[in-house]
Amino acid sequence: MRLLLANKYFFPNGGTEIYLRILLDELPKLGHECVPFAVAYQGDWPSPYAKYFLPSPAGPGAPRLEQMRLTPGRMLALLDRSIYSLAAQKCLRRLLDETGPVDAALVINIYNYMSPSILPVLTRRGAPIAMLVGDYNLMCPSYQFLRDNKPCFLCQKGAYANGLRYRCVKGSLAASAVRVVSMYVQRLLGLWNLVDLFLTPCAFMRERLAEAGIPEKKLRLVRYPVRAVVRDTPEPKGNYLLSFGRISAEKGLDVLIDAYQMAAPDADLVVLGRDYDGELGRLKARIRPEFASRIRFPGFASGDELSRIISGAQLTVVPSRWHDNAPLSVYESMLHGTPVAGAAMGGIPEQIRDGVDGALFAPESASDLAGTLTRLLADRERLAAMGRAGRERVLAQNDPAAHAAALADILASLAEGKNR
Length: 420
Known about the structure:
Distance between the termini: 17 Å
CATH architecture of the largest domain: 3-Layer(aba) Sandwich
Number of domains: 2
Strand order of the largest sheet: 2-1-3-4-7-8
CATH superfamily of the largest domain: Glycogen Phosphorylase B
CATH class of the largest domain: Alpha Beta
Number of strands: 14
Radius of gyration: 22 Å
Strand content: 5-15%
Structural class: alpha/beta
Helix content: 25-40%
CATH topology of the largest domain: Rossmann fold
Order of helices and strands: EHEHHEHEEEHHEHEEHEHEHEHEHEHHH
């Protein structure tokens, strides 16, 4: 099959792009042709289809809102991309006209800088559409189901105006207004109704979408694949705890910092990742002088370096305060034989078997996390056994090749249904 893969980013930005890279590598092994469609940015992976990518609304070096110099022209471009982008439609039509039709499409993160305006183009050309739902953008203006860093579901069933009322998008009235208007317009136009099947990486997400009104028959649970750089020789365990991913408020790292200082374990704490919205500075301000040398922020790591750090950790901690969908850091840690302590939020309880390959703790509770850390670190042999159990499970249920084959079967079934 010839498959369109649409995602606004085509460079290593986060978990979504890790997933996209797996598909780009695995689907061709099964005889399928991948046709990427994205927004053009510096650092994109090479692709013969790059000339068809949508130009960035604020230049190729500014993929995020906080990096943009918002001139009036760029604000208009962002408004177009957020609500209904004629430019995105034009670029996609050109790609299909010049390179040929596709049998099916998988759309991932197309919000804001691309928009669901591309969906009618695909539908008119007879291409069925599956969508991987990796966050709550379809139901929440801020995509996190958070308000003032607390869980909030006010907008889930369509009352998006609450996002404007509480300025949920970066605390900005203007940004919140654009997002809320775009959600109402897209609902009025029925754009998301054009998706034939929504794929969710956890049951929690599937249930929230069903509550929001998406028919059960259009929802399918498909677990994320995971492919980490596994070392030929296992890294000997070091004496540190690990957290890795975005350094941002919704990740609950402040709870981890407080819990670590309460527990005062004999292991260090390593927090890996890029800083977002100044969260790193706020975290450092919470650290007491006696812990300053034991809590480390080495920055971003990837590839073999990240693999080495994950393998060497006694434990990975995922303290999310938002309903984290199915964080890849859980699966990646387990694949490296490192158990995980995770907040009982969103899809995390589906990933961790409490007492088998990790532990769950009460969200937003530094005291409960501190007790969990103390209990787990008291028995290093049990930690090692948990690590082995997690690795066995991930190898069995999150294999990239098996995931690609299952996804191809799903898309083939959709295409067959369209052609009847």
